[in-house]
Amino acid sequence: MRVIAVAVQKGGTGKTTLAASLAVAAAESGERVVAYDLDPQGSLMGWGALRRQNGITVDRIQAWEIGQLPDILDQTSENGTTLVLIDTAGAATGATPALRAADLVLVPVRPSRLDLVAARPTLQALVGLGMRSRLALVLNQCPPPPSARTDAYAAQLRGLGVLAEPGIVQRVDHQDAVAAGLGVTEYAPQGQAAGEIRALWGWIDAKIRG
Ligand SMILES: Nc1ncnc2c1ncn2[C@@H]1O[C@H](COP(=O)(O)OP(=O)(O)O)[C@@H](O)[C@H]1O
Ligand SMILES: [Mg+2]
Q1: How far is the C-alpha of 166 from the C-alpha of 138, rounded, in Å?
Q2: What is the whole-number distance in angstroms between the Cα of residue 157 and the centre of ligand 2?
Q3: Which ligand is nearest to the Cα of residue 14, counting in written order?
């Protein structure tokens, strides 16, 4: 069983949006997916409650349970789950056990200086945990291409070997899909947002297959 955490100490960058659609894309590619919501705001749980589709279990892990995360993950793997996605809170205090348990920590940032600066504490925490090779930034809410700004940030992060690709463009499909309890690949399977999410899942899958 593989574990992906989505984390950055800043709200609004797209952690929950990406966790939801990646969970669906992974399930569509044959994974047995459990998504855990670590955020007290419960956005991912709310998305799960809206779902009419089967295939993904969404559950909450309360702050007081986080110390038991290794046991929770052991139990999760025993029932045949192949992939766990963990959505974390914006203020990532308390998320350390989830980061530690992850084969990959996906760090969504918008292509803006302020978002990249805001991601630093999360990246430093990951490096401090010895997880330099298990983190990847994903540029989210990118302006429609071509965008020189997106390209410049992508080149910089790619040069550092920490860029998940492709970047995800700002598209209403993401908002509409989440509102309907769907992933973008369910909401508009032929859409560009769906294509980008499938490609990002492909990148992540290859990365954590090692
Ligand atoms: N790629 C995207 N395209 C359009 N809207 C997006 C995209 N990613 C996130 N959003 C929107 O940005 C806002 C914040 O996203 P959310 O997933 O709640 O972030 P976080 O979980 O990091 O706080 C939401 O309104 C969401 O619909
Ligand atoms: Mg969120």
Answers
A1: 8
A2: 23
A3: 1
User: 139: which residues sit within 8 A by CB, 6+ positions away?
Assistant: 109, 110, 111, 150, 153, 154, 157, 163, 167, 168
Residue ranges in 14-112 assigned as alpha helix (H): 15-28, 43-50, 69-78, 96-101
pTM above 0.85, yes or no: yes
Q: Where do the structural domains in the chain lie, given as residue ranges? A: 2-209
Number of residues that this document lists for the chain: 210
Residues within 5 Å of ion ligand 2 by Cβ?
A: 15-16, 43
Q: CA dist 23 to 26, 28, 120, Å?
A: 5, 9, 26
d(CA 56, CA 67): 24
Each residue of 10-66: pLDDT tens digit?
999 999 999 999 999 999 999 999 999 999 999 999 999 999 877 899 999 998 999
What three-state secondary structure class fits 169? strand
Q: What is the CATH number of domain 2-209?
A: 3.40.50.300
